[in-house]
Amino acid sequence: MRLPELRIGPLIAKIPIIQGGMSVRVSTSELAVPVAECGGIGTIGGSGIPVEELQEDICKAKKATKGVIAVNIMYAMRDFHNLVMGSIKAGADMIITGAGFSRDIFKIGKEHNIPIVSIVSSLSFAKLAEKLGAAAVVVEAAEAGGHLGTMTPLRELFPSIRKMISKIPLIAAGGITNGYEMGEMMDQYGADGVQLASRFVLSEECSVSQKFKESYLQAGKDDIVLVSSPVGMPGRAIRNPFVDKMLAHDESIVSRKCRFQCLRKCDRKYCISERLLASRDGDVENGLVFSGANAFKMKEILPVREIFDRFVKAAESVYKERTQESELATVTSNAG
């Protein structure tokens, strides 16, 4: 059955896929535009870059597509407010935020008439986001890449939140690598859509280095590990010499001087901006390569259009239109 549109505030995505906003300079307009052109929500990673650079990329994206362009900004960033306001001024359609929780962001959203989407990993924050005025909530579970807010798997976490959140769209995120899983989350768990990040790293349009993509292609299940982030949250990344040093508490990686000043709070165990930029530009031995837990399952680099076509075809093969009664029954069953 045909997949439903994803409506977030006044915005409509013809295909219920949000492309995850990966920083630093992993999700740029080069990726967000083709995602938006395919009918999804294209997201620019707005953390860890100067406001002016972010604004230029947003303007570039808005000129290139009439689709929905969002900006993902981590609350953990020191210049969070400036990045948000700069994004709004540049014409972003939507702000997506996680890695911490901001109450003030919802006031900004109302003042500037822009939808705010919260990434949460618990029922309490999902309920708070809905109460404060979130236009949608992304439920990000343990299988996600980058910074993690929970160790609970998606299929355990999502039902309890779905049961309590019904007035706004609820998006499933974490470890989804194909359309069958997308269809499962929408059909059996009641998700209104999905957020995909790692799958889009392995797209032709993603502007990371070829070596970054090869790290994904070559990774086995056991190569994807939990790491400590100076943000104060655990993260998930592909094991490499730098990660080995991190896990061994090697003092040589400690950040003695901070040239980025990017985080509100930083334990300086290493410079995360420096390491993310290194991997993005091809130094995958000394950089940090964030990835989802199931990235090892993906073995092809595809055009964004092909990714969409495959996801939609597979998801539609298992998705059935849901009535309110069937959705409540399924959620209750999954929660039990």
TrEMBL record:
Keyword Cell cycle: no
Keywords: Dioxygenase, Flavoprotein, FMN, Oxidoreductase
Transmembrane segments: none
PANTHER family assigned to the protein according to its UniProt record, in alphabetical order: 2-NITROPROPANE DIOXYGENASE (PTHR32332:SF18)
GO MF term set: dioxygenase activity; nitronate monooxygenase activity
Name used for this protein in its record: 2-nitropropane dioxygenase
UniProt key word Oxidoreductase: yes
